Amino acid sequence: MRKTIGMNEAWKFIRQDVEQAERKAFNDEHWQHVTIPHTWNAIDGANGYEYYQGACWYRKTFSVEPSCEGNRLFIEFQGSNSITDVYVNGQHLGQHKGGYATFRFDVTDVVTYGTANVLAVKVDNTVADDVYPQKADFTFYGGIYRDVNMVVTAPVHFDLMDYGSQGVYIVQEQVSKEKAKLNIKTIVVNDGGEEKKVNLWVDIYDANHQIVTYATKEVVLTAGESQTVELPCIIDNPTLWQGRKNPYMYSASLSLISFNDTIDALSIPFGVRYFHVDPEKGFFLNGEHLPLHGVSRHQDRKDMGWAISEKEQVEDMGYIREIGASSIRLAHYQHSQFFYDLCDQEGMVVWAEIPFISIMSQYELDGINAKQQMIELIRQNYNHPSIIFWGIQNEIQIGGERPEVRRLVRELNALTKKEDPTRLTTMANVLFVNEEDEYNRMTDVIGYNKYYGWYHGKAEDFAPWLDKFHRINPDVALCISEYGAEGIVQYHSADPKVKDYTEEYHALFHEIVWKTFAERPFLWATYVWNMFDFGANIRDEGGVKGRNNKGLVTYDRKIKKDAFYMYKAHWSDDKFVHITSKRHVDRAESSMCVKVYSNCKEVTLYINGIEFQTKISDDKVFIFEHVPLMEGMNEIRAVSAEDNDFYVDIAKFNKVDEPNPSYEAPVEEKGEEVQNWFQMPDLDGELEELHITDDVYSTRCTFKELFENEEAAAVLHQFLGESFRERPTYSMTQGFKIDTLAEMAPDHFTDKLLYALNRELTRINKNK
Ligand code: GCB
């Protein structure tokens, strides 16, 4: 019978490349003792300084019981970032490229039994041109950051070498309320030296462990043969997996039986459901409309990076459940099996994706690694009912217009549909992709990452854009795959503005945008960027280095920002009241405005124990104006009574003489949607007429194109400032034409600036 033996303990590690470290006889005495999950970037990955990216080594001694001889042995890595070379007793077993999927090596013929073996692993998180991601707004934490196991099987077993999957695919051929027609596809392997006859049994159990149905088949395998065996199975009157309402799970118990022995067995949880997306009405699960109230998640955590345990994942899910979300975009790569399992159990509808993000390789134009990661993602996660959407790219247009990018996106879509015709494909376009672009029709449904109200424009700009897109493409199912703003809980303002980084602007932004989305049921989903702050070492935002602070919850998961409660009020049925701006303690004004988020109908405010006002609201936001403050500490209490229960929240505000300067972010130009990084030109003398032709540079070119030419780059430096290219947001904009950015930010790219840029740029010939 199959045995899985944990191999997380007793590793030695060194944070550098070392020659001959793969050898069995090698002195690693002075190396550090570590336990898996491990990363070498737990601290330097999110502090804003350069983080270590390079090759490092892990070594471990292990023994295999003599009783295992005659079986097959596999070493399994559930996640190691990003290029991993595995050696046993000095022998190279292979290399895996990609930091997020499970992979295994067959070690049967290289281990010794009853004596010590040495496993040596080189892991390298340097960006390689043929491995995705190439560039992204998050830290690429290096290390073996998910579990390592040894799996021991009999010579005849369910395949473990099919792209890291379990070798079992429960295909939902047709599901309705009356019947779930399944085809259980298994890959059975005979690694033994002789022909073998086995019986394959599949028993389907319901959630109460009662058998529902079963199927069986005799399988004859010649020596060395791998066979795909299909077992059709029907569940009559199935209980459907109905999202958060009823995430009903069955389980398939599979076994390979030879005479009286069960020689291999697996238990696979699954749920049955059907779904569709209507471009006018949104998402439907089992025929019922289900609004997908979504958040995105990255997998890292403060001081841990990606080396988290199940405990942190359960906590993350706890926050997502509490806010009342019904869907999660698991960005920007494959997450751990454990998390997809949690999504199944909680009834979260999932968008799962590969890290084909920002920029396509300049040299590897067939997309070999992107395709490999797509197949791994699908085959390893095929049986999760929560996954409904496969995401094939994120903002891959940032690298500029390249025909090979379009070709690869189309190929990835075709590959995904071939691997799994039962689910929907999707992708996240960068904001500047034109509404009429064919990118909007390559996948089954589409998403846009839009940052009105942060990188450009105002939060209110969502409404006209959404309506315009829908008018142009009434038959395209649209979602907002990302939207957000920075919110740093240190900063506060009674008059919040774009780019002030305050907790108040963050909350106000989400209030406005959520209202806009809620009024547009044609959106099939919306995903807040992001549920949690995360490590992005290239960033220096509002005085915080190495972080993206757009989360609704802080990186250490200790503080739920006000915006968290805004969504909770809309999405959750668990009653509460929440006074906002509680961290804005010191107030220099003699009266203030108190804003309360609540999903109760009525909220009463008490000031220093005295009843002030009662407000009734349907839109979850209760605003109490002119709340008087006495000198010193004031206690504000918000109370709601509903269904015989009381809900209370308390805040304390300190009336002071002078505003507290620590509430202000050390950034200039608050209220500006694009930072004013450029020099306004002096236009002396007569204005000459400019001729913009294809052979010269101009503002019709993308930033990327311009920066690639030394002279054009010098012009940009002159007008946009030296540091323009180093800005974290540059990676977002390099595929933009200057004219496109100018349309979005006309106040900054004035006609005068555009004229001056063109006057200089058109003097440079592209072919020179
Ligand atoms: C995006 C990216 C995401 C970034 C986000 C941001 O569009 O897809 O990876 O983190 O913007 O915050 O800028």
UniProtKB/TrEMBL annotation:
UniProt domain Glycoside hydrolase family 2 catalytic: residue ranges: 281-569
UniProt entry tagged with the keyword Hydrolase: yes
InterPro entries hit by this protein: Beta-gal/glucu_dom_sf, Galactose-bd-like_sf, GH, GH2_Domain-Containing, Glyco_hydro_2, Glyco_hydro_2_cat, Glyco_hydro_2_N, Ig-like_fold
Glycoside hydrolase family 2 immunoglobulin-like beta-sandwich domain: residues covered: 169-273
Pfam families in the cross-refs: Glyco_hydro_2, Glyco_hydro_2_C, Glyco_hydro_2_N
Residue ranges of domain Glycosyl hydrolases family 2 sugar binding in the record: 50-151
Biological process, per Gene Ontology: carbohydrate metabolic process
Transmembrane segments: none
GO MF annotations, alphabetized: hydrolase activity, hydrolyzing O-glycosyl compounds
Keyword list, A-Z: Glycosidase, Hydrolase
Family: Belongs to the glycosyl hydrolase 2 family.
Name of the molecule in the record: Glycoside hydrolase family 2 protein
Organism: Paenibacillus whitsoniae
